[in-house]
Amino acid sequence: MKKTFLTLLACLGLVLTGSQAVFAAEEDNYLRVGMEAAYAPFNWTQNDDANGAAPIEGTNQYANGYDVQIAKKIAESMGKELLVVKTEWDGLVPALTSNKIDMIIAGMSPTEERKKEIAFSDSYYTSEPVIMVRKDGDFASAKSVSDFSGAKVTAQQGVWHVNLLSQMPGIEPQTPMGDFSQMRQALESGIIDAYISERPEGTTAENANPSFKMLTLSEGFEVSESDAAIAVGMRKDDNRISEVNQVLATISEDDRIALMDDMISKQPVEEESDDSAKPSFFSQVATILKTNWREFLVGTGTTLLISITGTICGLLIGLLIGIFRTAPKAANRITAIAQKVFGWFLSVYIEVFRGTPMIVQSMVIYYGTAQAFNINIPRLWAAIFIVSINTGAYMSEVVRGGIFAVDKGQFEAATALGFTHGQTMRKIVLPQVIRNILPATGNEFVINIKDTSVLNVISVVELYFSGKTVATQNYQYFQTFTIIATIYFVLTFTVTRILRYLEKRMDSDHYTTGANQMQIKEVTHV
């Protein structure tokens, strides 16, 4: 049974990492470009290679849009194929500086702050800020920035749009959000009154959602040239920037406008239906599930792979640390010193990983190791490693408590019989500890299933990442996230019930064994 489970787990890992392995084997043939693939018409995700789309690393999906077409021209000039690395906005610069990607082509402006970290090419598009509101909202007829007094307005975190909030007198500035999909969802649900965007994205949102309205203000914002421009981000030591500029110079202003108009017409937009024939909420959920079940299945498989492997490895780490920390002090002085130093190291490890969020650990381990030590860890392996060592830090304390819960008399009896510490642990203590910590282990497993969602910051294609991608394609956020929530609930509910069943079986076996032993003693006594 154990071998079968491990075989299935290994096969699942091979299936999920197969596409990444193919790309890794031919890495030199690709120009790896980072983008969100969720910012139409600059970049978006689709399920096929129609209209000149480029493959997304580690998935069966493709990216298209204005940025993608510009990137294809650059890749072609370098004699390479374009490979899109789908990355969260906040992770683009770390991914570039840590050599995870070759370039950033994601509608990024060459602001002075960013120029301190990376280099930029010449501009390949000039942006114009707009404001998105609801057609039936209180600010739908606004003509200038001063008309938004009292409005709840936000912008994307880490983007120059945030600086424009200070140019809107009397507003209630809201906390900047992670991406445009979050802002669209907040606007649709009424959490905010408006958000600052750019004309291409505003046109896309307006076409996709009939309740949205794009406002180009007669008395608008004061925007610097560096903010309005959009350029290719590159590492400062990359000497190909002149080659990129040469490619961009061949694209005239008319060609750029024509390309943007073409991409706007080709972007995926949900078809509108008559209000009388508008499908119900559950019909929309069923349609999304039917259309995108493969993406949800892959995301669920990756989530299970990471959480199962991470929990098992974390439990093993916890057991080893628990055994070490409860071991008696060595008689040899040098060994005792080494034991004490290693104990300090373990204490630091436990405190650090219990005292910092997993999302921060993910950024530091995945991007930090590549930037500081030039260690390029594959994304999926990095995810498993992160979950494992995080779980290990928690499980070590659980195991230590489980060991101390065992009656001291059993330790004394084992010592009297000549057992070493290792033999005592392996034959007497650990069997009892494993049973005692099973509920805590199950709880950690459930937590890991949910916490894999934070790994989307390093672009692991787990369930949340897959669902978020689907939502940015269909603009039906509530319906899509209802599916994601349901899948998470089914996974955690099923795991909880399986673990409770195992607990009952182990308790049953324990009591049965104890009854049999009593019967044997009684027969022997007679």
How would you describe this protein?
By secondary structure, the chain is an alpha/beta fold. Strands 10-9-11-8-12 form a 5-stranded mixed beta sheet. A 3-stranded parallel beta sheet has the order 5-1-6. It has a 3-stranded antiparallel beta sheet with strand order 2-4-3. It starts with a helix and ends with a helix.
Name the features.
three-stranded parallel sheet, alpha/beta, disordered N terminus, 526 residues, 19 helices, five-stranded mixed sheet
> Which term fits the overall shape?
elongated
The unreliable regions are 1-9, 14-26, 511-526
| Record field, number of beta strands | 13
Strand order of the largest sheet: 10-9-11-8-12
Task: Please state the average pLDDT score.
Answer: 86
Structural class label: alpha/beta
- Through-space gap between termini: 41 Å
Q: Please give the largest β-sheet.
A: 5 strands, mixed
Tell me the Rg in angstroms. Answer: 28 Å
What is the strand content? 5-15%
**Helicity, as a percent range:** 55-70%
How many helical elements?
Answer: 19
Quick take:
The chain has 526 residues and is an alpha/beta fold. It contains 19 helices and 13 strands. Helices cover 59% and strands 11% of the residues.
